[in-house]
Amino acid sequence: MKAKSEKFPLTVKRGSSVVKIYREEKPSGSYFRVSFYMGGKRCGLNFPDLDEAKKEAEAKAAQLSRGDLDALHVTGKDRLIYGRALEAIRPLGLPLDVAAIEFAEAKKTLDGFSLAEAAKFYMRHHGKGVILKTVKDAVADMTAAKKQKGVSVTYLADLKYRLGVLVTAFNCNVSAIAPDDLRTFMDGLKLAPRGYNNTLATLRTFFGFAKDRGWLSKEADLLAGIEKRTEKAVPVEIFTPKEMGELLAHCSTDLRPCLALAAFAGLRSEEILRLEWSDVERRPGFIEIAASKAKTASRRLVPITPNLAQWLALAGRDGGHVWPHSKPWFFESQRDTVEAINKERQKKSKKVAHFSWKTNALRHSFISYRLAELQDVNRVALEAGNSPRMIFQHYRELCTPAEARTWFTLAPDGAENILPMEATA
Known about the structure:
425 residues; alpha+beta; Nuclear Transport Factor 2, Chain: A; DNA polymerase, domain 1; hpI Integrase, Chain A; 3 domains; 4-stranded antiparallel sheet; two-stranded antiparallel sheet; 9% strand; disordered C terminus
């Protein structure tokens, strides 16, 4: 009824822009046509309801007066999408075209991944409160903190070596490192399983330290997907009393007390290199391994066996280090000793077996013979600075008590005359 009282065409004006509404009759009923000119061409939109036609005419007149010609093409479903898009970005205060451009660039970069997931990943690594800290500075701070805590020199050296490689590879902030980058880094080191696992453990410690200091988000797991590698069991090798006698007989005067300390007290090479004569003399009957000189950063007292006391008594002491030379010289002297033994063997017989240096065999020998002698895993573990589980797992039943007695009676007077022992039942 209302439409019939209106005089058509209805005219809607905004400035100099004019939009008209015509009433058209069809057998099926009346409809209303919104008519306007755009780019010199007449355009029209049909509506079954007059109120809807009026709303559209008002909108088109306003758009024409603003010169918003592109918007005139947006109708129906597109207009609904446009409205939802505007509403979605309204809280951000961004123009719709800026938001669309940024979204398109991000989607291209993500190559099919969800933008929302990428944003969540970013916040896990660069969340609020994360302090920017370069990998180099973070490593320096962690090393200083560990040193102040009193860890061993060996631990510090290992830390500097493994994290030093990280510093070289990542010239960026800690929070900028991605898991994929770390996987590539670890694979590129080409380490054996033991070295790989040790480096992985060091990285876990480092990133945990970074989280505690706020340099890395608590949610970040940079080592996700990087698994420990299976280590092949390395057989424990030991020297026989005869072989030990040859070592002591053919080594240099300076090396002799060092070999004796490894063979009869179980000291590690690094502990010997840091050992001073005051550590041997401070506690009569014992060698004091300070926490700063031990691999495990735990102080321990190692008893001086009677035969070890005889070997140490022959050494010249100046109050300084037990090994008075450089670390490379220490290992060169061991190689020289092996060469001297083989030359001596060749003189006696061309068929004699070649003497070979066995890695860590002096310490392994001490633990094996000491366990056979004492039959006490806990006591041997305390003296060697190992766990009872490690002692029981690797050194049980390697030697007999009779062999142990021969080992710990190997003294200066008989070192060159040790005979191979016969097997016992």
